[in-house]
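Hey everyone, long-time lurker, first post.

I ran two proteins through the pipeline my lab uses and got sequence/structure pairs for each. Pasting them in order. The first:
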Amino acid sequence: MSVIRMKTSRTPFVLRREVLWEALWLVISLFLGQASMMGAAGSFGAAAVAAAMLAGTPVYPMAIGAALGAVIGGGFGAWSDALVPVMLAATHFGLRHIKRKPTLGFVAVFFVVLYLPRMLFASPLVFDKLVTLAAAGMGGLMIFVFQGALRAIKDTKRNFLTAEETAYLLIFAGVLFLGLDITLWGVHLRNILAFTLVLSAGFVAGPGIAGGSAILLSMLFVLSGKMDAATMASFCASAFVAGAARPLKRWGMMFCFILTNTVITFFLNSSTQVLLSLADMLCAAAFFAVIPKNWMDKLSVYMDGSAQRALRQQQVMNRTQRMGVTRLREFSGIFGQMGDAFEEMVTQVPPKQPALKRVAYCACRGCAKASWCWRESAPYAAPPIQLLWERIQKQGIGSTIMAPEAFQKQCYRLNQLIKVMEDVTAEERSRKEWEDHLVQSRMLVGQQLKGVGNVVRGLAEELDLSIRFDPAKEMRIVQELDKDGVYCKQVCVQQTVGGRFSVFLEVPSCRTPVSCHKRVVQAVSAAMERPMRIAQGPCRPQMGTCEIILEEAPVYEVMTGIARRALDEVSGDSYSFGQLRDGRYLMALSDGMGSGPRAQKESAATLSLLEQFYESGFTEDVIFSTINQVLLLRSVDEVFSTVDLCLMDLVEGQANFVKIGAVSSYILRQGKVERIYAPTLPMGILEEVQPVCTQRTVRDGDFIIMVTDGVTEKLGIKEELWMERTLTKAPVMTPENICHHIMEESGKLGVGDDMTVMVSRIYKHIR
């Protein structure tokens, strides 16, 4: 039985799409053909057909539309205008038949030649002939403009447009609007579209593009007789002011557009009859208000130079991130495969001679009864010898009593046989232990390699970040610096995933860096609308430049005190505190297992890694998972460390407590104590670690108290009451005094472990 397979094809869909595009080009050329300038209709439609020959867009639908448009716009008397697109289409057909591509020069000259008969025979007046010649020349020039516009429209994969392409499209749109001479209930469609286009251009690209768009459109309207000079001036001024009101968003721009036209009307017209139709402006404002935001974002990338630069920066950043993440994931996969290979590896031990055969060779070689006691194949030994061997295997040592009585009488070398069996048994046990140890070692190496792979994979996921650039803030920074007389060579504003802004500046170096830095900080703070400070500012006088990195200035400041007491000579507790590069303040305690040098090394290694990861901007999940894997890999024995961490955002005033096997922390505020507690296991015990995070909002004057378990281990359930009483009875409320006071009170209960106390006080800056 044969099976007929039906083949699907996407050809109908492709054909439908091509038909829609051809219909769209026909409609566009229909309106272009109706556009007239200096009383001559049809030249723009013919120019569009000529441009289509060069740009690769459908020629025949555009020729039909341009011919119909010329007839509709000029009547049946404009048959010569309608004939030009048809002749251009016929020329295109002939060139395709001989497989020749048209050039711009050929098409332009041929276009002008087609208008010569009309110039010679249409009218005897010299003025009419000059007008026809000017219209033909304008049409020939438009071939070049329309060619660029059609290519930009045809290429739908473009990310942004050049300035020339933007101008081509604006002129193309203006000519298209000339053909849309449609009026409904006193509202002109041509004016509505022109006003909406200008407002959109000003919204995405500022006053320069808005004013330029208005000038191009109004010039076309004036040359076509659709607008007078006074109305043109009002339109251009209103567009420029609306673009300047870009920071006021859409409603502000619409209000400024209408208000500017009204004010200019009072001065130029001296009447209440506005130059630009109020109904047209209101309809355009309504269309402008409902344009979707994602359309505006796409248009801004096409038209706004700063948006294009931000797009290129983002593309470079994304490409770099993808390369780094891909490489790290590849490394992670390699480590994982190596780990699997070690775990699945079969122990390869050189083949050993069977144990009983070695016993026979060493003990019974040369004995007359050897052939009776031993065989060449299994079972190698006679039953009495086999029984003796099993007994020695169980006990490890042997004696003549262990042998069967009959065998004791028959064997001449019994003592020697037992001694060899003991030696072979000991050797076999040693070899078995070595093989087991080898298997365990390989399994451990495999687990360690897989652990490294997990760490690298976590780092790869963390590096898959998105860093956003802000071109609007960059422009404001340049403007503010220029007001203070500081020339900005380069500026870059970026915002990380955490929402923090950082600014990179390159400015000329000056003789007094302090005063220059002060002006830079003031200007950047004004532009960013938030207090900023210099994080890094290397100046190179020999190069004549200063590269300055600014970050958000903290609202809060932290002062920290520490007190320690070791059970042995070396304390197993470690501590760290200080400000990170991203503006956060780190306070951390770590208690290693036990006390002494080894515990100190484990806790110090934990905090060292902790600081480096936080400085690099990783999240808590990746940080603690990585450190946990490192602790597991450091030693075969059980090695663990606790982590008591407080990470404070000095800008927002948020304190994030992270506890892994640590005891309670406390917040002292105006005599009241709040306990922060989370029961968890230390790191280095389980394959996965689950940090418990608690967030609190801190205020000016708060104290954060963190201790290790040696301080509170003798208190039990009374820990919270004891800490509240101790904190409220401190003689002087400073971090150092509170630390020593807690240490003294805890020492009265007895010292059973290393003790560390860290106290931090929160201050708020007065600006």
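...and the second, right after it:
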Amino acid sequence: MTMTILESPNCEEVIDFTKTKRWEILLNHAINIQQAIVKFRKGNVDLEWSVLKKKAKIMLIRESQKRLTSNDIEEWDLQQDEDGIWKVSGRFELQMSTDKPIYLPCDHPIVTMLVLKAHRDCGHFGVAYTLSEFRKTYWIKKGRSQ
């Protein structure tokens, strides 16, 4: 009898980032993938929805950050957190009350989804307000021009 070892899937192979423009839908797909991974690896173990959601969000962000170059890491003084997510340090260390924003490459499809979600979440206000709310959590190069 042979046993198949399951590995974490490459997101790009499992999720088509161009099929939806809504972050919530993409996140739900990623949550379903996380549920499947847990069931295959650990049997019939149910994790809380909030844990699955956090794992799914980390999976999607890490997938988008695979496009980062060593130049990006050096230019933006990026540092990885305990989940392997690249965050901007630098001037943000001066503001102790501010969490370091997650750095996202501007050319990945989830950036558009997250900006549109921020736009909806802040009541369809203008570009400046949406970008300021977005940058509390995420940072993208050339954010204003995107």
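Reply from user beta_strand_b:
Welcome! Quick read of the second one: The chain has six helices and four strands. The two ends are 54 Å apart (CA to CA).
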